[in-house]
Amino acid sequence: MPHKTVIIGGGAAGLGAAGGVKAARPDAEVVVYTEYEDVAYSPCGIPYVHGKEISDFDKLFLATKEQYVSVGIDVHYETTVTKVDTAARKVHVEGEGAVEYDTLIFATGFEYADPGVPGGDLGGLYYVKNIRRAMEWDRVLDSVKKAVVVEATPLGVEMTTSLAHRGIETHLIDPHPWPLAEMADPDIMAPVEESWRELGITTHFNTELQGFVGQGQVNAVRTSDGEIPCDLVVVATHKVANARLAAEAGLKIGSTGGVIVDERMATSVPGVFAAGDCTEIPHGLTRVPLQGLTGSHAYAQGKTAGVNAGGGDRRYKAVYVPWGTPAGKWIIGGASFGETTATALGIPYVLGQAQGISRARYYPGVKPVKVKLLAEPGSLRLIGAQIVGGEGIKERADFLAMAVKHGFTFHDLSTMENVYSPAIGALNEPIVVAATNGLDELRKAGKL
Is residue 250 packed enough to be buried (19+ CB in 10 Å), middle (13-18) or exposed (0-12)? Predict the structure, then answer.
């Protein structure tokens, strides 16, 4: 009998795992169970279809169902795994009964945190996740005049902008003082808030959600500052690990609620692996466990879990979290952490900042770029970065995450080479200027 791997979940982690198993052991039997009608699409693209930046949902599909069949991956759609018996190496599948496995991979993803307020069962509450439901909601948006987004999480930030682009009067409520307050700094988000005002978006910060109001269908959101009438609510609360099935199977769960895994994505139970949003991964510097990262993290974790489940050897290291997203008319991003997180964790730092440009100042389309670098006092080793600008943010965030990982210092960054070409890069790279400014400030203060 061929080696058999069962994968629970058909998102980025699950399909990455399926490919990983096949790469390590081409003759393996790979079975994927998903509760949804589809696999291999990009849920991260859904807000951009709603905002009309992407023309239709079909563009979000990465592969056809037939393609998975052709490479020997057996996907069972709209199928629920109800129980896992790790001692017997069996999963219990609704409508199929007990299914044996040699290795098992949990890729069960995330759920949105329950808002925990009255009215959660009303119609008109939209949780952005399943592409088929998103297609249905997109038709509803044609008749929506006024919408409320609950919480300025990454998805909340994207949906706020997308709804405004759709021509819908949009309100954003969040209990924090500024958007993305748990990961981004206020000075980075200030241009975003200004651009939202230009788009006609009304923001309600330091505002608590108290309930959803309506008879069968939501018609208002009750907050600590009063009621906001609306036709639709996008609930964009924090992602929490969907690890209930794993916990019931006896896998160790960490402080974030995610499954604990090692560098091989192996869990506490032999022969069982986990990947994606249902797991927690340590931060490379602080070792603080993180849950709910990006699709690229989930796919890479899934690939690692699959290779190892198939008998290979692959490692997934601690993360330094490059991130970025459009927000209003800007793009924001960063690596590792910013001032807000460093302060909350009691991590000392020195700062280097610069306001630069993305191209030569005379080239059409030049955009501003603000770079903020955090370094460890004394060694001046880079420990974090945040950026806001009009272009080039993703590439800088990727580079700065590697710079943190490999211990680059302000000295290294202030003397680094950079591409200069008027159409794509300025003479003075903003990262270089920020590091140089940081060194100059330390010299002025007599600390260098």
Answer: middle
Q: Is the pLDDT of residue 277 over 90?
A: yes
Count how many residues are written for the chain: 448
Q: Which helix (H) or strand (E) holds 436?
A: helix 430-444
Q: Which residues contact 318 (CB under 8 A, 6 or more apart)?
A: 281, 282, 283, 284, 287
* CA 206 vs CA 34, 45, 172, 279: distances in Å: 38, 29, 11, 30
Cα 42 to the center of its chain, rounded Å: 12
pLDDT of residue 66: 87
> Which residue(s) pair with 232 in the sheet?
147
- Taking residues 227-235, report their average pLDDT: 98
Q: What is the pLDDT of residues 109-147, one digit of tens each?
A: 999 999 999 999 999 999 999 999 999 999 999 999 999
Task: Supply the mean pLDDT for the chain.
Answer: 97
Bridge-based pairing of strands 209-215 and 232-235 is unpaired
Kindly state the helix (H) or strand (E) to which residue 272 belongs, with its residue range. strand 272-274
Nearest to 412 by CA among 371, 375, 448, 358: 375
Angle between helices 393-405 and 430-444 (to 10 degrees): 50
pTM for the complete prediction?
A: 0.95
